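Extended Data, panel c. Modelled sequence:
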Amino acid sequence: MSQSKNSKKFFVGFATIAIPIIVVVAVFSFIFILGNPGNFKTSPEAVSKMGSVWERSSVNFWKEAPAPDGVLGTVHSGGIIVPLLMSLLLMVITFVFERFITIFRAKGKGSIASFVANVHQLLSKGDIAQAKLKCDEQRGSVANVIRAGLGKYEEMLTADNLNKDQKLVAIKQEFEEATSLELPMLEQNLVILATISSIATLMGLLGTVLGMIKSFSAMAKTGAPDAVQLASGISEALINTALGIGTSAIAIIFYNFFTTQIDKMTYSIDEAGVALTQNFASRHN
């Protein structure tokens, strides 16, 4: 159980460290990669007058609104909301991989359904020692919880000071305590995906509104509308919409996938707990 606590602390620390790093990477990517002068239709003379790399970055380009030249420049033209959406997208990708690794390890080496079935068969034969060995071979969260229940099962066999009902309650409590230690590790950081699934859409909508404001400002000018500013505003609106909706969709899909996998493991634990208590109730006093 101490291993589960250490894993939980690790993943909490991982999120605390990963999020600021992701934000910094996204901002620098927006400024120095997407905002590179080579991604825009800017004359060499104009570039040479911009001075330092920082002066050539997004702030200067955003003010002058040069025409993008390629995919990177087009994405950069989405405006100041783009690095925020990039941060959210990178967070989704990072925590999706982190959850994949965690849940894969929690499942153990083999099929959970086959493992639970084997443990149930061994229990029906009264072979507790072999059932424990199966748990050690399987590993993972489900095996850890079942092994804890088997340990309590074996302990109750020699607990002469307790009646049958008290023994059953003790076995159930052991399952519940072991589950409460394992499940938080599985659900850790899923709240980040759930939050991003809502925030990304709102941030995309905010970028869309800002882009439309820029477009209507260009149309409101006296005389002929500024075509460059009009196109820039529309581009900003559409890019932010695409990034926001895409990030939100990815977060929702994987959040539902991970919660489904966790539910399957929870059902397996519940099934094993019921089988263990029923076996004890039918074979022992």
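The radius of gyration is 28 Å. This feature is highlighted in the accompanying rendering.
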